[in-house]
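Section 4.2 – Deliverable D4.2 (structural model, holo form)

The reporting period included a commitment to supply a predicted holo structure for the target in complex with iron/sulfur cluster. Inputs used:
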Amino acid sequence: MTQSIGARPFLRIDREKCLSCAACAAVCPPEALLLAGLDLVFEEEACTGCAECFRVCPTAALLPASGRFYREVA
Ligand code: SF4
Ligand code: SF4
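Output (structure tokens):
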């Protein structure tokens, strides 16, 4: 089973767990994650599926929508 980035959304956000720490936004290469005040905004179209944000989130508030941590190139 393969998943391309075309199978959006790549990312699921558990907003109950989010601390608005901005760690994910700081490592997101295309700046697909942004803090607007305390609200984490996800610009889905900008996401490349690199998974960097999952690695730095201290509360596991970010999860791959597929349940997999790394996308595979079809
Ligand atoms: S998977 Fe990569 S591109 Fe997508 S939101 Fe996370 S850090 Fe940004
Ligand atoms: S790294 Fe996790 S806790 Fe911090 S802003 Fe991003 S989703 Fe929220």
